[in-house]
Amino acid sequence: MDFGNFGTVSFTKQAKAAPFVDFLSQGKLMATKCKKCGNKYFPPRMDCASCRTSDMEWFEIKSKGKLLTFTQVQYGPLGFEADVPYVLGIVQFPEGVSVLSRVSKKIPFEEIKVGMELGVIPIKLSEEKFSYEFVK
Amino acid sequence: MKKEVAVIGVGQTSFNRNCGISIRELCFEAFKEAAEGLDISPKDIDASVICSAPEYDKQRTPAALISEYLGLTPSPSFYVESVCSASTSGTRVGYSMIKAGLHDVIVVLGFQKMSEISSKEAAEVMGRGDDTMFSSPFGTTMPAGHALYARAHMEKYGTTEEQMAKIRVKNSHYGALNPKANYKKELSLEEIMTSAPVCSPLKVFDCCANADGASCLIMTSAEKAKKFTSKPVWVIGLGMATSELNWSARDSQTSFGCTKKASSVAYKMAGIGPEDIDVAEVHDCFTISEILAYEDLGFAKPGEGPKLIEDKQTYHDGKIPVNVDGGLLSKGHPIGATGGSQIRTIVRQLRGEANEAQVKDAKIGLVQNVGGTGTYANVIIFGR
């Protein structure tokens, strides 16, 4: 799969990081770690800015993390008209990375609080499109 | 005080929703005002730095066209971009060229005609301001980014929506005094608090509006400044910093690291601290942005920004007057023109030309111009 299979609206097709989308289709949200210096990256990247090598390994984010902040978006960019309102948030995971994504619509907005525990799961948007969202 | 690079002229057009003229004509108006009262001709200009956000332009490579229209050819002219902080980045480049001895007289011209593209095209552009691989696919926007900071600040420090609204109350008060502002109506706390939600907790009146407009600075070496004006305003400190484009990759959701870094560099260069600033222009694209700026620039301790506005200390007769021209919230935000407009306000304050919003005996002024959601920050300190 290429990177164009990721997200409601995609802007990039080719990327060394494209296996990220294959992992999503297999139900896994992955970050990367530099084999040389151990730096962890999310968004995942195939090149380490710290030691300037490109020898990376993938690791899964599967713990529950802490919601750092969130917002309910009423007006979206082009291509997101059908999605509004949606909630964006940032969750900090014990694996050592923070992730930006949407909070699942299954969680009522009134229940969303900074500091709450959330996990992240890959989701299938359509036959060929994958993403991930925060869930309880 | 270092007196090496001066601003000798400042100008801007009115900022409005649909200017009805072409980009080159907008730029001419700003240049014309900047040169007013100076015995200067286009042949005195050694180089020009043209600043905007190119995704709003139909014209490819506008620098040459604007240079041609202002009569500046064949002097060097080129383009600088750092989204909303483009024209202060251009000022940084202008300063560097003068300081390096490459040129003596520089024009920095910022513009944006946001009405140039359709609202559909604008909605498409809006989606591409964050990491297009990992953030944009979720429908991120500029208001959403700032709303994440607002929510985190509220949670950590107990900041309230009402405190944010008070920023708009102040800025709408000064916007009503600024003939160049798009939004000249004073707003009540209630009107702001009851406006429609955009990205919670931010509401319509917490947000600045798109606009058309241009701004212009004329900068010179110390020697040339004497030739053209008796009222030079000196650039005494500059700092710039860039944060990660990915919000989730940043250390803090309650401050802009780029502003903190840029201001510490600028203060050090000027040999002063935040307590020495008489008047400031900060990048209030949203009400929360002004509160973050109070703290990141050192006008208040972390978490105590809201108290400054509660106590009205950022009004023109307060301890540290901020955005007494109405700010982006009242003026409107023509991306590439905004930084130059902020500098214009500070230069006019230091020259004692700010009329009803004049800060008494202002000697040192500061401009903080941010690009994106805390992505780039330029902090420039001026003295007279």
Account of the 3D structure:
The complex is a heterodimer of chains A (136) and B (384). In chain A, 5% of the residues lie in helices and 38% in strands. Chain B has 384 residues and is α/β, with parallel strands linked by helices. Chain B folds into two domains: 139 residues, Thiolase/Chalcone synthase (Peroxisomal Thiolase, Chain A, domain 1, 3-Layer(aba) Sandwich), CATH 3.40.47; 219 residues, Thiolase/Chalcone synthase (Peroxisomal Thiolase, Chain A, domain 1), CATH 3.40.47. Chain B has 13 helices and eleven strands. The longest helix of chain B has 16 residues. The interface between A and B is large, with 39 and 38 residues.
> What order do the SSEs of chain B take from the amino end to the carboxyl end, as H and E?
EHEHEHEHHHHEEEHEHEHHHHEE
| Helical proportion of chain B, percent range | 25-40%
By CATH, the topology of the largest domain in chain B is Peroxisomal Thiolase, Chain A, domain 1
User: In total, how many domains does the architecture of chain A comprise?
Assistant: 1
Radius of gyration over C-alpha positions of chain B, nearest whole angstrom: 19 Å
For the terminal residues of chain B, how far apart are their CA atoms?
9 Å
Q: Taking strands numbered 1, 2, ... along the chain, how are they ordered across the largest sheet of chain B?
A: 3-2-4-7-1-8-11-10-9
Q: Architecture of the largest domain in chain B, according to CATH? A: 3-Layer(aba) Sandwich
Given the structure, what is the number of helices of chain B? 13
Structural class of chain B: alpha/beta
Mean pLDDT of chain B: 97
Instruction: Based on Cα principal axes, name the global outline of chain A.
Output: globular
Give the quaternary arrangement of the chains. heterodimer
- Structural domain count of chain B: 2
Cross-sheet strand order for the largest sheet of chain A = 4-5-6-8-7
Please name the fourth-level CATH homologous superfamily of the largest domain in chain B: Thiolase/Chalcone synthase
Q: Total strand count of chain A, please?
A: 8
Task: Give the percentage of residues in beta strands of chain B.
Answer: 15-25%
